[in-house]
Amino acid sequence: MQSNKINAELKKSQEFKERIARYLFLLCALFSVFFIILISYFIFSGGIDVFRTVGLKDFLFGTDWSPMDTPPSFGIFSMIMGSIMVTLLASAMAVPVALFTSAFLACDCPAWLYRILKPGLNLMAGIPSIVYGFFALTFIVPKMRELFKGNGMSILTAAILLLIMILPTIIAISENAIRSVPNPYYQGSIALGATHERTVMHVVLPAARSGIFAGIILGIGRAIGETMAVILVAGNQTRLTFNIFKGIRTMTTNIVLEMGYAAGIHREALIATACVLFIFILIINITFWIFKKRSEKL
């Protein structure tokens, strides 16, 4: 009788602890949603007037950014294209490298080498972006100047820098996705006569595509949102060009460079630029969500 009473009290105590933990998790989730709503309200309420004053078409597709002129111009199309070109070029170079590196780490890397490579990649992920920027300014920019003339600050230089910066993120998430593929997938393919390389490329990697794509999306998100490192090497010229050897200015660098002295409609135009950047990130995440849902149905 006494034993049953003790067990009931223990069960009641355990249920109470689980209830507290559940409410704590719920509170943390609500805090995350609250901050997203707060940030969205701040940037959209601060920048929405620009769309009415300047005009949505002139703001998004105008190529002249001259906020100090009379009358001022607030066209950010050159900066939108600058952000897109730097991000796409960096991603196009980073994805194959990250994919093969993560496959090697998960499937073929000797244990002694893994103990060296993995901490190195983790260290790369933790290095502050300004350190990457100084590295690019003192090493990559002079090399680009020697190879392609000019001042060395260009779309290609910024893309190479971002390639180095987003690699650890894509590799880490892709490696985890590859390791989570059930071993019978690999064994079944080998038993049917496929080689190790063919099994990895045609069975294991496709099975891990959802996680790999998540890593790529996070890498793209970091690339398009990167600011401090890009400021040092992109040239910071507000012009529309598709020449990868010329300098440009991205949306993030425009906000950082001018927010310190901006006032009035100039400041609102910079906040509106943040709205456009926010929508870009939203589109990337929605694309990932759609891709993941379709992958789950296959």
Q: How would the blueprint of this fold be written?
A:
Elements: H1 2-61, E1 65-66, E2 73-74, H2 77-107, H3 111-126, H4 129-148, H5 155-179, H6 183-191, H7 196-207, H8 209-225, H9 228-233, H10 251-258, H11 265-297
Antiparallel strand pairs: 1-2
Q: Mind explaining what this structure looks like?
A:
The protein is mainly α. Helices cover 80% and strands 1% of the residues. It has a two-stranded antiparallel ribbon with strand order 1-2. Helix 1 crosses helix 11 (265-297). It is globular. The mean pLDDT is 87.
Summarize the structure.
By secondary structure, the chain is mainly α. The chain contains eleven helices and two strands, in the order αββαααααααααα.
Key features of this structure:
298 residues; mainly alpha; 80% helix; globular
Instruction: Name the assembly state.
Output: single chain
In helices, the fraction of residues equals over 70%
What gyration radius follows from the Cα positions, in whole Å? 25 Å
Strand order of the largest sheet: 1-2
> How can the largest sheet be summarized?
2 strands, antiparallel
The tally of helices reads 11
* Average pLDDT number: 87
